[in-house]
Amino acid sequence: MLRISVLSGRHELTVHSLSRSAESFTVSYSVAPPLPDEPGSVSPSASPVFMWLEAVDDLGNHYSDFGGARGLSPDGRRTVGSIAGQPGLPSGAVSLTVRLMFGVGSDNFGYDLVLPVPAAG
Questions:
Q1: Dist. CA 23–CA 87, nearest whole Å
Q2: Cα radius of gyration rounded to whole Å, the chain
Q3: Model confidence band, residue 118 (pLDDT cutoffs 50, 70, 90)
Q4: Burial 73-91 (b: 16+ CB within 10 A, else e)
Q5: Cβ distance 79 to 31 under 8 Å?
Q6: Which of 85, 101, 106, 112 has the fewest CB atoms below 10 angstroms from its CB?
């Protein structure tokens, strides 16, 4: 598990896991307190928060965003979600540097995370 402060220190991002398939990889995460535009959060009229990823592995291969999903946790205390990249990771990759990007209005915030690549299953 990896935790970092995001969005000017107003939120904490926790990366729970990196999983892989033949076609893609997925980063599971949570953000506390919830992102301000989550339905049911305290600020539902806030500017939308867009997320995307860029990534490169330790072998020099580059990956692009493949979509994701997020929502409010059942207790309402955090945003929970997953975001995917493609193509799938090669068997020789050991680490993946993921840049998670948050777009809020005209501002973009990027955060680099180095994650160990799980063994191919």
A1: 5
A2: 14
A3: very high
A4: beeeebbbbebbbeeebee
A5: yes
A6: 106
Q: For 24-46, what is each residue's pLDDT tens digit?
A: 999 999 999 999 876 666 555 56
Side by side, the strands of the sheet bearing 49-57 are: 2-6, 11-20, 25-32, 79-86, 62-72, 49-57, 95-104, 107-116
Q: Tokens for 26, please give them.
A: 């997925």
Report angle CA 72, 76, 78 to the nearest 5 degrees. Answer: 65
CA end-to-end span of the chain, whole Å?
20
CA-angle at 96, arms to 93 and 99, nearest 5°: 155
The pLDDT tens digits for 3-19 are 999 998 999 999 999 99
Separation of alpha carbons 112 and 121, rounded Å: 26
How far is residue 121's CA from residue 1's CA, in Å, rounded to a whole number? 20
Tokens of 96: 């993946």
Check if the beta carbon of residue 20 is closer than 8 Å to that of residue 89: yes
Token reading at 20: 């892989």
